Amino acid sequence: MRVAALLAAVIFSATAVAHADDEPAPLDVRLSSVEGAIAASFDVTSAFTEVFRKRVLNGLRSTIIVEVLLHAKNGDVVGRGLRTCHFKLDVWDDVLSVRILESSRKFEQGFSLIDRGLRQCGLVEELRLTSASLFDNEREYWAEVVVLLNPVDQETLQSAREFMSNPRGTRESRPSTFFGAVARLFSSETDTGGEEFVFRSGWMARPRRVP
Amino acid sequence: MKKRLLPSMSRFELQILIAIFLTSVVPFAISLYYIPQIVEERTALSMHEQVRDQLEGTAVLYKEFFDAKKQAFGARTDALARDPVLVHATVEGTAADVEARIRQIVEDNRDVRSVAVSSPDGIAIARVDGPPDRQGPDLAPKAFRHPIGVGDVPWMEVTFVLPARYVSAQEEAAEIAHLYDASTKASVIFQTEQTIEYALRVLTVLVFALIVGYVMARRVTRRVARLAWATQRVAQGDFEFDLPIRGNDEITQLTARFNSMIREVKESRDRIVYLEKVSGWQEFARRLAHEIKNPLTPIQLAIQELRRRVPEGVPEMKTFVEDVAGMVEEEIAALTRLVDEFSQFARLPEVQTEDVELKEFVDDFLAAYNRFEPEAEVTVEMPSEPVRAAIDRVLMRRVMANLVENAIQAAGAGKAKVWIRVKARAGDGVEIRVADNGPGVGEENAARIFDPYFTTKNEGTGLGLAIVKKIVLQHGGTIALARAAEGGAEMVINLPGAKAAMARSPTMG
């Protein structure tokens, strides 16, 4: 319990966290080469607010999206990585189910300690950004990390659509109509809502062992 | 209509199409203005932060309920571990004593699924499961452990149960709260989608309505365009067409009347042209008769004088003169007949019509000619009811006589069969047919048989049918050549009925 409490204190000390409107907070990001891809490792658990944690503790479904944009020196985006974490607490057994989705891997585990489950999401290890072959040895890079707390991701958006079309759940979920499908082509279905925090790394050199 | 010279889209058609388009597009444009507002209002009605907070509060309430329940179960486990009988049994009794006591505990606590006691190093001492109704999947279990006493003592584990529906209800509440929260956050996206979807639906209906409207309007506009095109052709003097009659509406009636009008105009025009032509020929016949008739009398007198002056006693001379005089007198007689016919043709009287019952007229006509016996066998076919027409008895009798005589000449005297058929036409009109069993009229002559001076006979003047046609036209009627069912020629006369003819004019000139 002491360890957990200490961990929680570290996580939610709210140091070096910046909202979207503020200047990006500094973040230590490490680039590495993994199986021919450039990957980033960093820790954004500091962005998980107490409000968010309480929400998870209360058994409410929660989602975190972590997006990493790797910029070249001239500002061009040369790599992008995305991690989505879904949290679901079993309030009877006190087990936090954490489901993490990345482009190249998937992870799902139950945690008796809530904060360990949150840290599993915030501590990002080797998130694939782009192919290592695109990197130039001479150039320098910096990463922008955006953390979205409880945004509406595509999966949730679709579930919300079905829920709104059949809120009572008295009938089968309405199939997507032709017009609805066409209408969605015209709407901007980007992740929306939620609290946003932005981090920025310092200048980084390319990983040493790029093939 | 043989030729299709209609433009692909007439101006009238374009105007109708524009009208339909505007009728559809204006409401669509207005609805586009209102749709976002309606969608926004609807969203505002269905999305409330208070509702979201209440939904989340419900899920949190469940959580607090479970926490309280677990706290209570923990406290009861603590209390059960202090049970003096159980403590005594674990310290001084046997495993059977322990089992007896925990069995009693299971029986006394209806929300306990099982109780187990194990040694400090984890070896099971006793375990009692509750009855089967506490083992089902409809119950959610939760185990609590507590030492029985203080120090290195056995532990007891009590498994409590709760209706599983409480757990699923919490999960459902959390899920609904989650989705409602997402819906609230994505309300702008939903509004956009609903607006576009609604607009697409309206647009689809609009396009469908436009197509249907255009197709339906085109059925009308094309016919109107045809009528306009037809009037142009008529204005250019073309009467040789009929507009197709389709449908059963006012335009159909208009088209039918237009066709009828074209036919009447054409008939009137043909009648006028023919009558003008015949008038010219009449003038020619009158002059010709005059020019021929004038020298005939002196020639006749000269012949008589020649006969008178032939010396007696010269028989050869007398015979010669008689022969020559006879020949000249025969030619004079022929010329005289010709002049008479020309004169009759030139001086055709004006038609003086009266209301006549045609059966009586035909009977009188045949009686006057002794039914043309024995040259022909004439059969009359009349309807049982009276048929009336406005005709000039004298001139129409001349028409009938001419036609029957032509029929007899064509079929051959003595073996000719002639049919006179009279019937009332639909509306106010009558039809008289004169048919024969002759060889008929060749196609090469059919077009000219009513022309003056055209004849296929050796001794004819070619004026008979011209006179017939002029009389019929003066009656306001028509005459046409057809092929008889019996194989010969058939003359078909259409005359206006008594009422129509009287309405036109009591005297037809």
What report would you give on this structure?
- The complex is a heterodimer of chains A (211) and B (509).
- Chain A has 211 residues and is an alpha+beta fold.
- Mean pLDDT of chain A is 81; it is low at 1-16.
- Chain A has 2 domains: 7-153 and 193-205, no CATH class; 154-190, no CATH class.
- Chain A has helices spanning 2-11, 50-57, 114-122, 154-165, 178-186, and strands spanning 25-27, 30-34, 37-43, 62-72, 77-90, 95-102, 106-111, 123-131, 140-149, 195-201, 204-205.
- Chain B is α+β, with helices and mostly antiparallel strands and 509 residues long.
- Chain B folds into 4 domains: 11-46 and 186-230; 50-183, Beta-Lactamase; 250-346, Helix Hairpins (Orthogonal Bundle), CATH 1.10.287; 351-508, Heat Shock Protein 90 (2-Layer Sandwich).
- Chain B has 13 helices and 13 strands.
- In chain B, a hairpin with a 5-residue loop joins strand 11 and strand 12.
- In chain B, helix 2 (49-81) runs antiparallel to helix 5, helix 3 runs antiparallel to helix 4 and helix 6 packs parallel to helix 7.
- Chains A and B meet through helix 4 and helix 5 of A and helix 2, helix 5 and helix 6 of B.
How would you summarize this macromolecular structure in one to three sentences?
Chain A has 211 residues and is of the alpha+beta class.
Structural class of chain B: alpha+beta
Question: In total, how many beta strands of chain B?
Answer: 13
Number of domains of chain A: 2
What structural class should be given to the helix and strand makeup of chain A?
alpha+beta
Q: What is the assigned CATH homologous superfamily of the largest domain in chain B?
A: Histidine kinase-like ATPase, C-terminal domain
The averaged pLDDT of chain B comes out at: 86
Q: Order of strands across the widest beta sheet of chain B?
A: 7-9-10-12-11
Q: Span between N and C termini of chain A?
A: 45 Å
User: What is the ordering of alpha helices and beta strands of chain A?
Assistant: HEEEHEEEEHEEHHEE
Mean model confidence by pLDDT of chain A: 81
Described by the principal axes of the CA atoms, the overall outline of chain B is: rod-shaped
Number of helices of chain B: 13
> How much beta of chain A, percentage-wise?
35-45%
Strand tally of chain A is: 11
* Largest interface: chains, residues each: A-B, 33 and 36 residues
How would you characterize the largest beta sheet of chain B?
A: 5 strands, mixed
Any guess at the CATH architecture of the largest domain in chain B? Answer: 2-Layer Sandwich
